[in-house]
Write a structure and sequence with these properties.
The protein contains 1 helix and no strands. The protein has 46 residues and is mostly helical. The relative contact order is 0.08.
Length: 46
């Protein structure tokens, strides 16, 4: 008789970001949205 046992342990930690990281992330998202909008407008011009 063979008994195979496999255990997984998952740990979830809340990610704490400081004000500088939050403002940087917001700026990155804004630039990404602007770039995406520009790509869409260029696509529609063709």
């Amino acid at each position: 008789m063979t008994l195979n046992i496999l255990f997984f342990s998952i740990t979830i930690k809340k990610n704490k970001i400081d004000l500088q990281e939050a403002s940087h992330q917001e700026m990155v998202e804004k630039l990404y949205e602007q770039h995406k909008d520009r790509q869409i407008s260029m696509y529609h011009l063709m």
